[in-house]
Amino acid sequence: MSLRKKYIVGNWKMNLTMQAANQYMLGLCQFMQTQRELSVVVAPTTVMVQSLHSHFGGRGVQFAAQNLHWAESGAYTGEVSARQLSGLVEYALVGHSERRQLFYETDDDVARKVAAALHHQITPIVCVGETAAQHSQAQAGVVLSAQVAAAFARVPQGSASRVILAYEPVWAIGTGKPAATDLVAERVAAIRRWLSTRYGQSAAAEQTVLYGGSVTACTCEAYMATPGVDGLLIGGASVQLSDFTEIITKAIKLRQS
Ligand code: PGA
Fold first, then answer.
1. C-beta of residue 61 within 8 angstroms of C-beta of residue 41
2. Which atom of ligand 1 is nearest to the CA of 11?
3. How much distance in Å is there from the Cα of 10 to the middle of ligand 1?
4. Which of 20, 142, 168, 229 could form a disulfide with 212 if both were Cys (CB 3.0 to 4.6 A apart)?
């Protein structure tokens, strides 16, 4: 079994009110009292981060920002910088496909955001994945290499393992149609081959790679058991606490078996 740490990351997206988030976190921290096998991370909307961090920080659940801006400060209305998030979150999602598609985030933005996150001791969780059209035109390999290259464009040798990658095929996100596990294994292996060429074999072997896209409590075990996959990035099934804790429970059981 790989020695890489295992992760369950919940991306709440633009869901839950502050009150609902507090209830959720109360329950999740209680549940986590007896679990320490996996790193459990939730990504609340930015407005909730500070309050959740002060009430629930250090109680077995870590926090991620859903996005950040690469500049230190300045005239960027509506944005939040890595510097401002520093100390409140341990992780930040970067380049989620919804950011790329709906908010026109580019590979260059992703590269800058990764650098800014690392500079402020925030671990970037960089999402990469092909669209349905790219998938059907057999372009996934090219797209993934370009996205992974961008993710690491500003990451110096020796710091690669400070970045987490999440393979999230766009066509699998929020569609109820997750990618087949053998396809996921193949794509994750291709990502590691790219890393091996750039940073060497041992860096590639140390790299944490998650899978995301329509994972539910029913399918989570299959993805956790997929070769090369170190954890899950979960959207829809993380919004209800009971679904999320069921996924964590199953992932832990699998690890112990
Ligand atoms: P999903 O979202 O689990 O709802 O498909 C995953 C994600 O957006 O990271």
1. yes
2. 9
3. 9
4. 168
Ligand 1 cavity residues, CB under 6 Å: 11, 168, 173-174, 212-215, 233-237
Question: Which protein residue has the closest C-alpha to ligand 1 atom 7?
Answer: 235
Round to whole Å and give the CA distance between 238 and 221. 15
213 Cα nearest atom in ligand 1: 5
Catalytically annotated residues: 96, 168
Q: Looking at residues 176-196, what average pLDDT do you find?
A: 96
Tell me the three state secondary structure of residue 105: coil
Q: Give me ligand 1 centre to Cα 235, in Å.
A: 4
Q: Please, what is the angle between helix 241-256 and helix 18-32, to 10°?
A: 20
Q: Burial of 1 by CB count in 10 Å (0-12 exposed, 13-18 middle, 19+ buried)?
A: exposed
Separation of CA 190 from chain center: 18
Q: What is the mean pLDDT of residues 223-251?
A: 97
Closest residue by CA, ligand 1 atom 9: 235
Q: What is the pLDDT of residue 221?
A: 96
* High-pLDDT (> 90) share of the chain, %: 95
Cα–Cα distances in angstroms (integers) from residue 8 to residues 100, 102, 180, 245, in the given order? 23, 25, 19, 10
Is residue 34 exposed (0-12), middle (13-18) or buried (19+ Cβ within 10 Å)?
exposed
Specify which residues 81 forms β-bridges with: 69
pLDDT at 144: 96
pTM of the model: 0.97
Ligand 1 centroid to 181 CA: how many Å? 16
DSSP state of 86: B
How many residues in the chain?
257
> Given 3-state DSSP classes, what are the helix, strand and coil percentages for the chain, each rounded to the nearest 5?
45, 15, 35
